[in-house]
Amino acid sequence: MFISQSTARLPDRVFDPECSTRQVYDEGAKEVALSVLSGINSSIFAYGQTSSGKTYTMLGITEHSMAEIYAYIDQHPDREFILRFSAMEIYNEAVRDLLSSDTTPLRLLDDPEKGTVVEKLTEETLRDKGHLLELLAVCEAQRQIGETALNETSSRSHQILRLTVESSAKQFLGKGNSSTLQACVNFVDLAGSERASQTAASGMRLKEGSHINKSLLTLGKVIRQLSGGRNGHIPYRDSKLTRILQSSLGGNARTAIICTMSPAHCHV
Ligand SMILES: Nc1ncnc2c1ncn2[C@@H]1O[C@H](COP(=O)(O)OP(=O)(O)OP(=O)(O)O)[C@@H](O)[C@H]1O
């Protein structure tokens, strides 16, 4: 497993197959995930071939992050925290709400203050850790339904789990003070990377292949441009994935990319 942290400026790391997800989290994702508590947006991606462990790793990273966010909240009784959770899937450049049984594709709107907004996306205010686990189960069930209908969508779609954390100092609550911090962390399970290269290599014009390509290629371009510190046009608007994640990729946002690698001969 290989981790690249573009904006945190920590060294890249390679983890061998014996490493636990906890170790990957501690050394590669923790700082990025917990920056949400300081009001800094962040994204953690899992990228790699189908069955190389993206979903497994992201689930562990999400659970470790949530446990530490709740531990932080317990240690800071002087602040009031509100946690909101939403989940979406991007398949063939169509965005679907994973907390709703309605499969109608959602539209993206440009809000002058908030940037790109996913219209009508369900956002649940979390009561506690147990509530989050219930919502993760709902997402998984919604993904399974899509999978039955569309055959193997999990390896062909991008999943974004988004946690928004808002906090205010209790002593200033209701006094119009600007001590409120708000940011979100995105846990992103990308479509299988070989889907893009295989479809591109064989010159297939399948809608699905070209859409996965478009999102993954655009993400690659955006990250390369941002991490190279180059000025100029950043093509966020070229895919739904990068439009939705724009505010968590650019500016002072922090990013970690976890590349899961399969030892299978065909992937060498
Ligand atoms: N680090 C690990 N330790 C133990 N089992 C693992 C690990 N990583 C993955 N697995 C197991 O390997 C299988 C494939 O993993 P996973 O579903 O996470 O792959 P994926 O890359 O998300 O695949 P897809 O692209 O199809 O969604 C699963 O059964 C998972 O439980």
UniProtKB/TrEMBL annotation:
One function term, GO molecular function aspect: microtubule motor activity
Gene3D superfamilies in the cross-refs: Kinesin motor domain (3.40.850.10)
Keyword Nucleotide-binding: yes
Keyword set includes ATP-binding: yes
Listed Pfam families: Kinesin
A biological process term (GO) from this entry: microtubule-based movement
Domain called Kinesin motor: residue spans: 1-268
Keywords for this protein: ATP-binding, Microtubule, Motor protein, Nucleotide-binding
A Gene Ontology term for the protein's cellular component: microtubule
Positions annotated to bind ATP: 48-55
Similarity field: Belongs to the TRAFAC class myosin-kinesin ATPase superfamily. Kinesin family.
Descriptive protein name: Kinesin motor domain-containing protein
